[in-house]
Amino acid sequence: MGLLRFATAGSVDDGKSTLIGRLLYDTKSILEDQLEAVESASARMGLSVPNLALLTDGLRAEREQGITIDVAYRYFATPRRSFIIADTPGHVQYTRNMVTGASTADLALILVDARNGVVEQTRRHAFLASLLQVPHLVVCVNKMDLVGFDRDVFDRVRDQFREFAMRLDVPDLTFIPVSALHGDNIVERSPNMAWYDGASLLHHLEEVHIASDRNLIDPRFPVQWVVRPRGDEHHDYRGYAGTVAGGVIKPGDEVMVLPSGFTSTVDALDTPAGPVDEAFAPMAVTVRLADDLDISRGDMLCRPNNRPIVTQDLDATICWMDENSALRPGQKLAIKHTTRWARAMVADLVYRLDINTLHRDSGASALGLNEIGRVRLRCTRPLFVDDYRRNRVTGSFMLVDEATNATVAAGMVRGAVG
Q1: pLDDT for residue 228 is more than 80
Q2: Domain spans of the chain?
Q3: From 1.10.580.10, 3.40.50.300, 3.90.220.20, 3.90.1150.10, which CATH number describes the 3-213 domain?
Q4: pTM of the model
Q5: pLDDT digits (tens, 9 = 90+) for 379-397
Q6: DSSP of 1-49, one letter per residue?
């Protein structure tokens, strides 16, 4: 069933790292030396059983504080599916880290402490998952063992979350009662919660359908590299390498090159394993065309009758990530969209968004670290964009400070400006 990327989030000490550690431990995805290191560290902490959270809390500062402050990526697999996990921070000051971890996720897993219910950080992470258009959201009501596996507690938390989620764009929402510490409903259904008739967490992750989440309608192929091998045997070879960002591309398809507007026909699709009959997101391929056109990095292949928005003016939502400066109207930055670079000026800060109350502050004059707002950007050259809701690849971009080369913001396109 392929690969599932999912991000974990939740309030501090809700058990995110423990849950991921439990998944790794119970699926036998831990190397022996890793387990020995965790057991030794747990013993030094005075614990009688291994602290599975240490499997993901890799930074020394995290281990000392018992919290997650960076995005910890882990990989594991079952016979049914492979997984990449992004364990993201719970603290408000690490909002940018969650944006990074969830930006490529197929599913967001939000943990809620059964004793505390839905808190401010729970609402913030749910909003960010919705903002980033993560198509599947799983709410794990954790630490059910500390409330006696009480069904009423689970129902109360579920109703609290549903009430808030009604204000968000959440197409698929699932609730699972769990105890990460003891493994209840993580890999196997728990006899302690016989009243719960749903799937265990792992079973849900294995079965959730994600193939239809990707945009297979709008062909988009940002050119990353022009392939011209050296040697007499390759003197006629000319291909364009990149990753398919949307739609399906097949030999024989008519394509248009942006920004030139020239058209040609796909002659072949090459991969390291040999030619293929079709390519779709997120496959990396080399496209060969029937005609010798002037194409370079940053150009895009699309269908003549299905083109992205070509614009120099963007309406976008951004998360500001720089701790040394703030975003202000008139500021000039570099913008990277797919494989294309340009310079951009912040034409207007429309509003700053309070992600806890969803209030829009239209009087804001700047965006600081971890703040989210709506902006209008004017670019020095045309970009080939789609609305983020339609395509998360061609609808996203980065802003870079040219003086320091630091990535200062992540953005989501909401359309072209008038």
Answers
A1: yes
A2: 3-213, 221-302, 309-416
A3: 3.40.50.300
A4: 0.83
A5: 999 999 999 999 999 999 9
A6: --EEEEEEEESTTSSHHHHHHHHHHHTT-S-HHHHHHHHHHHHHTT-SS
